[in-house]
């Protein structure tokens, strides 16, 4: 009897290179990610490796320190090749005197952690394939090791951050999630002093759950109230109950903890990612905006109930069928109630004009949401006296 021929299981160069990351990853201290990247890049024949992380203000890509990694000044995200790699999540290759500088996006679940840069003598498809896989592993390492160290927080913190803002950043999910059927992207301003605004999302099977909240007040009081509201939302969501029941649960939690004179406005959505059917409940929050064919189609005005904590009646659930590529933009009142540098209130009409202008670029939700927030901030003269948060959901079909 002839035995079956066994597949070749010898270790190739590429497997050995990736294995060097995987074999050391489990017990690797966070501060040694840099030396590991440098070692792998050297084996690939590369030099001057860098890992660049986005700062909390989403303005800069900041070098991660580490033995073997190249130091340098932060890169502006806008107007740089490193920034183009970051915003569009695509590799960027730049010819240099001594070779080719390759920028690779560091992606984890569609969230953009940062970029990895390395110089090679030349670049072929084998190099591109290996760099793509190495950058994926490095992104996973950065995400999984983040909770064990303050290193990455310190690198990303571009200026002093308030205690309330630190609470909010620790509460947030990843700022973006890009999946085949759905994409989500959010941004908070002021990044280093946000207090009462927050959002959360979860993709459970085929259903995307989203909430945006705005807790009254400022500072630690608002951050504490937002923490309770988001915690109550997550608990209720995980029970698998209806949107109206989630509202009731959040309402009781906030009222019991803070009394009848405190409240949180909220916008809660559920999107069936197979059918494109979205349901939402509005609790005293500005209505979301529907973007279709890269233009604002309408404001999703619907019946509302009292903000969370004020004991409103059971909310009515609104419903809408989305078309492939539709985007739903949620925002807090600080986005439209802030005053422009000339003193006039910004208003929803100005917001819609900005959305229409940026949607014409055809960029993804992460780039559009970031650009929209920064455009609005510039229109306000660079000042933000209230939290101003954006969250965009795209049904990709």
UniProtKB/TrEMBL annotation:
InterPro entries membership: Bact_Sigma-Reg, PPM-type-like_dom_sf, PPM-type_phosphatase-like_dom
Species the sequence originates in: Streptomyces fodineus
Keywords linked to the UniProt accession: Hydrolase
Name of this protein: Phosphatase
GO molecular function: phosphatase activity
PPM-type phosphatase domain span: 179-395
SMART domains for this protein: PP2C_SIG
Gene3D superfamilies to which the protein is assigned, alphabetical: PPM-type phosphatase domain
Pfam families named among the record's database cross-references: SpoIIE
